[in-house]
Specification:
The protein is mainly α. Helix content is 76%, strand content 4%. The chain has two domains: 31-169, Helix Hairpins; 173-232, no CATH class. It has helices spanning 3-30, 35-79, 87-169, 173-185, 209-216, and strands at 191-195, 198-199, 230-232. A hairpin with a 2-residue loop joins strand 1 (191-195) and strand 2. Helix 1 (3-30) runs antiparallel to helix 3 and helix 2 (35-79) runs antiparallel to helix 3 (87-169). The chain starts with a helix and ends with a strand.
Length: 234
């Protein structure tokens, strides 16, 4: 096997390794909770807190209404007990009863409004919980797929590492140094294929016929006039 063909075979391995490594980095980056999941969970927590606050206010209103009712009962018991005969005191009790009833009415109106708010908040919470459950189910399925793909990619990369080491061991140091230098300078691609005198990477068609034929015979290295990479014509 010619040295150029050896370099081309090594390039195939390295190119696949780069592709698989990039995919693995992407997969690993997607492992863990997604932003969508975090936001959905936060939305549920926010809705739960709102419901909690509304219900706490309702409990407070219940206590206040019960307190007003107790005071009103005491007022009425005293007013109709027959023990109070002083007109001024009777008038004061009647005024107090009126104020207590008005305050109770205001509290009950607030309770009604709060009941509507709680109903709406409960509905919003249920909707957010359902959305969270859907997002979480999809996320778990995606995570399982990503974890499986991660295992496959890691195995393939290990195999490519072994194959690359074996290939490099059979290539001379001078050619390896040239190959590695070109890969560093040209984005990981050191060897390009030509067909019918055309570079399949940059599209160059200015390759002299004699050079193209030498490349097809495995001679070289010869370099593309445009992208400066080693040409392979096999």
């Amino acid at each position: 096997m010619s040295a150029i063909r050896e370099l081309y075979q090594l390039q195939i391995i390295d190119s696949e390794w780069n592709e698989r490594r990039g995919r693995l980095d992407y997969v690993v980056g997607r492992l863990g909770e997604s932003e969508e999941l975090i936001q959905a969970r936060e939305a549920v927590t926010e809705a739960q807190e709102e419901v909690h606050q509304l219900r706490a206010r309702m409990r407070q209103l219940d206590i206040e209404v019960a307190s007003v009712n107790d005071k009103l009962k005491q007022n009425q018991d005293r007013l109709y007990s027959g023990k109070v005969r002083n007109p001024k005191e009777l008038t004061s009790l009647q005024d107090e009863a009126f104020a207590l009833r008005r305050h109770r009415s205001e509290l009950e109106d607030e309770q009604l409004e709060l009941m509507i708010e709680i109903e709406e908040a409960d509905a919003e919470l249920s909707e957010r919980q359902a959305r969270l459950a859907q997002i979480e189910a999809t996320w778990r399925e995606d995570q399982a797929g990503l974890e499986a793909e991660q295992g496959v990619l890691e195995q393939r990369l290990a195999a490519l590492d072994a194959e690359r080491d074996q290939r490099r061991a059979g290539i001379g140091d001078r050619n390896l140094d040239l190959y590695d230098d070109l890969r560093r300078r040209y984005g990981g691609l050191a060897v390009v294929r030509i067909k019918r005198g055309t570079c399949q990477t940059c599209g160059c068609t200015d390759i002299p016929t004699s050079v193209a034929r030498a490349v097809e015979r495995g001679e070289g290295p010869h370099f593309c006039p445009v992208c400066n990479r080693i040409m392979y014509g096999g």
